[in-house]
Design brief:
The structure is a single chain. With 423 residues, the protein is of the alpha+beta class. Helix content is 30%, strand content 20%. β13, α7 and β14 form a beta-alpha-beta unit. The longest helix has 38 residues. The strands form five sheets. Strands 3, 4, 9, 10, 13, 14 and 15 form a seven-stranded mixed sheet that branches. Strands 1-2-5-6 form a four-stranded mixed sheet. Strands 7-8 form a two-stranded antiparallel sheet. It is globular, with a radius of gyration of 21 Å. It has a single domain, classed as L-amino peptidase D-ALA esterase/amidase (4-Layer Sandwich), CATH 3.60.70. α1 crosses α4, α3 packs across α4 and α7 packs across α8.
């Protein structure tokens, strides 16, 4: 029954998707995804330029989908002059997540954000829907569509309460955020397209309109496999980057060398150009920081999704989630006041799944002494996922003609070589 349900669901939802959207809308979504795939494929991932983070080896795809069963699907909206947004879906397994929940935990590094469903995860230690990422004001609309999806699953006919999990970052610098353009059509498209294969990165899905370290951010992913003597488990991470700081790559001060980093103008006390129609201003130690005139505002948020096939309970998953913040810190983020830095961690281990009808559960989980290799894997995969989100992202022009440039590859490579971060 468990194997048949996803196939039946896929067929049902495919029909629903076509009826709701119509062929023209579906074709627009597919064409936008194809165009972005071509642009992003022209740019390298971290390992393509010799940027290797840490000591552990990645999985086959170097992606969150290296964790067996995990699926990722995305819908990209890049329309007209002002719509630069989307949705990214992460499915811990292909079955009915409400009937077979996964052990999970949430860690909040800095809570300036909107993570729907987090309180129940913290209370019960489990996730019962796919995890969806999007832009800030899209969260309620995306959650509503996710509820429609879940309620339509075979076996959920009598379900009366579902804890939808939806995270966000604010893509309003490039996107018409107030338009709330992501709805059921886009959510269903992302869920329907979810697969266990390679994950598209950069300015796609929930990362279409995001910005990181003053450059174009987006979706990034990476994975690590711990040695067989430590269990041979895999940890995969997917990030949605929209934050700032002083970009550091393998210890090299890339942001500083490129002249774009948090507090640059205040530190240097130099005149900076204002937005159109405004006068130039000079920042000194006694002046308030004018956020419209700085090279990196640093606020904005990051969502970090950590998956593992190690059999873990919610307590050790929370410890695992904590370590993603160390990977974030390695890239130069100070987790500023206006940044929502969130981590969701879950285990895909079949023995750790939670049947909603079970009154008593018996399961084996890893002990505390087995956690350290997984901690290292999480730190390394998070760090590299963030690098991939920047390296794969393309220059985007969006709302009000604002352009956010992609990280310059050639200059970045020169800086990395200068500081011995790559050979």
């Amino acid at each position: 029954m468990r194997c048949a349900a996803p196939k039946l669901l896929s067929a049902m939802l495919a029909m629903t998707f076509l009826c709701v959207q119509g062929p023209a809308v579906a074709a627009d979504v597919a064409q936008a995804d194809q165009d972005h795939a071509q642009d992003n494929n022209a740019r390298p991932r971290a390992r393509d330029i010799g940027l290797v983070s840490g000591v552990l080896s990645p999985g086959e795809l170097n992606a969150i989908t290296d964790v067996k069963g995990v699926q990722v699907g995305q819908t990209t909206l890049n329309k007209g002059d002002n719509i630069r947004t989307g949705v990214t879906a992460i499915l811990p397994h292909a079955g009915n997540l409400f009937k077979e929940k996964v052990a999970a935990a949430v860690h909040i590094g800095n809570g300036f954000g909107k993570l729907m469903g987090s309180t129940q995860i913290k209370e019960l230690g489990e996730i019962e829907t796919p995890i969806l990422l999007t832009g800030t004001l899209n969260v309620p609309r995306v959650a509503d569509a996710l509820l429609d999806w879940m309620l339509a699953l075979p076996g959920n006919e009598d379900v009366r309460s579902i804890n939808a999990v939806v995270g966000e970052t604010n893509d309003g610098q490039l996107n018409d955020l107030r338009g709330r353009h992501v709805g059921q059509d886009e959510v269903f498209a992302a869920l329907k397209s979810a697969s266990t294969g390679p994950v598209e990165e950069g300015a796609v899905g929930a990362g279409t309109g995001t910005e990181a370290f003053g450059f174009k951010g987006g979706i990034g992913t990476s994975s690590r496999v711990v040695p067989e003597s430590a269990g041979g488990y895999t940890v995969g991470v997917l990030v949605q980057t929209n934050f700032g700081g002083v970009l550091t790559m393998n210890g090299a001060p890339v942001g500083k060398e490129l002249g774009r980093y948090y507090l640059k103008e205040a530190i240097e006390g130099k005149e900076v150009s204002a937005n159109a129609g405004k006068d130039a201003l000079k920042l000194s130690a006694n002046d308030p920081i004018q956020l419209d005139h700085v090279s990196d505002r640093a606020d904005g948020s990051i969502m970090m999704i950590v998956a593992t096939d190690a059999p873990l309970g919610s307590r050790n998953l929370e410890r695992l989630a904590n370590r993603a913040m160390l990977g974030l810190a390695r890239t130069g983020s100070p987790a500023t006041n206006g940044s929502g830095d969130y981590v969701i961690a879950f285990s895909t281990a079949p023995e750790s799944r939670i049947n909603s009808s079970d009154a008593v559960r018996e399961t084996k989980v890893l002990g505390n002494n087995a956690m350290s290799p997984l901690f290292l894997a999480t730190v390394e995969a998070t760090e590299e996922a963030i690098y991939n989100s920047l390296l794969k992202a393309t220059t985007i022009t969006g709302r009000d003609g604002r352009t956010v440039e992609a990280l310059p590859i050639d200059k970045t490579v020169e800086i990395l070589k200068k500081y011995g971060a790559i050979k």
